[in-house]
């Protein structure tokens, strides 16, 4: 997975020079990983890495353009959709802190991007976070009864 993560991050923060922002290549790395492994947790991790990297890039270098934010939003929306599935919901605790940090980092970014990130993370927390809490409480209660 590290080689795929590196392909994503290098589009924003290469070892040398300026970021190329070849978002197509970064998204291809996510698709290639997903196709090669069918690993949902790894796919969500790479999607979050993509959105985090784009958000960090904006915070470091300033506002980009609408198509840049549309790409980030598209990957975020897909990631949220995956985490809202039964299989994905069980993975949510692994990514909950990163998702919260992402929402804070995106706050105030233009083109409606910051608002979109906040809405998506709040939706995820409301649906999946509450569901996860409920499952954990049921498990704890079941353990008390034994």
Walk me through what this model shows.
With 146 residues, this protein is mainly alpha-helical. It has one domain (2-145). It has 7 helices and no strands. It has helices at 2-12, 23-37, 40-61, 66-83, 86-89, 92-106, 113-145. Helix 3 (40-61) packs antiparallel against helix 4 and helix 4 runs parallel beside helix 7.
Break the fold down into its secondary structure elements and pairings.
Layout (H helix, E strand, L loop, with lengths): L1 H11 L10 H15 L2 H22 L4 H18 L2 H4 L2 H15 L6 H33 L1
Helix pairs in contact: 1-2, 1-3, 2-3, 3-4, 3-6, 4-7, 6-7
Brief overview:
The chain is an all-alpha fold.
Which features characterize this protein?
146 residues, mainly alpha, 81% helix
Broad structural category: mainly alpha
Summed up, the domain count is 1
Distance between the termini: 40 Å
Number of helical segments with 4 or more residues: 7
The rounded Rg comes to: 17 Å
Mean pLDDT: 91
Order of helices and strands: HHHHHHH
Q: What is the 3D form?
A: globular
Helicity, as a percent range: over 70%
Beta strand %: under 5%
Uncertain runs are: none
Number of strands: 0
């Amino acid at each position: 997975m590290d080689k795929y993560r590196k392909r994503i991050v290098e589009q924003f923060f290469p070892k040398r020079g300026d970021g190329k922002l070849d978002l197509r290549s970064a998204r291809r790395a996510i698709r290639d990983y997903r196709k090669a492994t069918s690993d949902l947790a790894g796919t969500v991790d790479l999607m979050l890495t993509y959105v985090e990297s784009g958000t960090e890039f904006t915070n470091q270098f300033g506002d980009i353009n609408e198509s840049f934010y549309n790409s980030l939003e598209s990957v975020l929306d897909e990631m949220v959709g995956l985490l809202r599935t039964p299989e994905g919901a069980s993975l949510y605790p692994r990514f909950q802190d990163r998702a919260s940090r992402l929402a804070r980092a995106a706050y105030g970014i233009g083109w409606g991007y910051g608002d979109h990130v906040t809405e998506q993370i709040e939706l995820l927390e409301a649906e999946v976070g509450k569901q996860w809490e409920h499952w954990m409480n049921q498990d704890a209660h079941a353990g008390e009864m034994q």
